């Protein structure tokens, strides 16, 4: 029996990750098991910090995000806390205080960093020392991509069953690699990625093609990262993101806006000029430019009107 050490007050920071090979589609909604293996880059500039304070006097979790009660996210967090309580025999509700360190209103708050920080904070505060593999699994049940935010740098999240579908760090050190987040839209996305994923999975023909192609992209990507070949990495990441968005659009959702298309065409124009800039996109309008350090100044000079965050490799989730 593990005693509740409720005086423990600690804060966990987990970083946002961006997928170069996307996760798109679940074979198990509850356990958040993906159909395919994905690969991502955890960044240094965007993160979430979370505290979990168990309190025997509570009769429900109290969730405060960025200083406010957020009902929608609060319910999701409480649901994940229920999973954690059940798995680790914790019998107390908690105050969950979470802050997203992302530029305000940039539409970049991420469920990946949030659920990674939550899984870690909720267990460590209780005195449990979970392995990173266990944390990755637990984070995954909160939000699929959160399984990757347990680790910094390049990360691979395997498809598999509840036990095997966890992330692992890639053994690749590439100091010059950069992801530049271009902030386009601050509005909440209209269609949650969960709902959009479901629609994609329902189209069996397009979806099975996506799974097949994305896994080919993955093996090429692994080789390209090992070779530190930015052009190859960029081309594959772009192709993979484009394929995902084609699938999303074919099944009735659209995340790209006018501004998105404008930035994409600017990135392509940069490439015509010999600048090594490639893009990826997730379930929203913001574009991320994939590049290396030596190209950053030139990219900034050519995209003056766009607010950018230049990111290097981030770190494993840790206590602060
Ligand atoms: C990814 N995305 O690999 C992909 C690419 C968005 C596009 O993971 O339902 O918030 O919580 O498992 O992890 C966003 O989906 O979805 C995501 P859930 P999640 O980064």
Explain what you see:
By secondary structure, the chain is an alpha+beta fold. It has two domains: 11-173, Ribosomal Protein S5, domain 2, CATH 3.30.230; 177-311, GHMP kinase, C-terminal domain (Alpha-Beta Plaits, 2-Layer Sandwich), CATH 3.30.70. The protein has helices at residues 71-88, 111-124, 132-142, 193-202, 204-226, 230-250, 258-272, 293-302, and strands at residues 11-21, 26-28, 33-34, 38-54, 62-65, 68-69, 94-101, 153-157, 167-169, 177-183, 278-281, 287-292, 307-311, 318-319. Strands 1, 4, 5, 6, 7, 8, 9 and 14 form an eight-stranded mixed β-sheet that branches. Strands 11-12-10-13 form a four-stranded antiparallel β-sheet. Helix 1 (71-88) crosses helix 2 (111-124), helix 2 (111-124) crosses helix 3 (132-142) and helix 5 (204-226) runs antiparallel to helix 6. The mean pLDDT is 94. Ligand 2P0 is lined by residues 19, 22-24, 32, 38, 111-112, 143-145, 193-194, 282-283. Its EC number is 4.1.1.33. One of its GO terms (biological process) is isopentenyl diphosphate biosynthetic process, mevalonate pathway. InterPro entries: GHMP_kinase_C_sf, Mev_decarb, Mev_diP_decarb, MVD-like_N, Mvd1_C, Ribosomal_Su5_D2-typ_SF, Ribsml_uS5_D2-typ_fold_subgr.
Short recap of the structure:
The protein has 320 residues and is an alpha+beta fold.
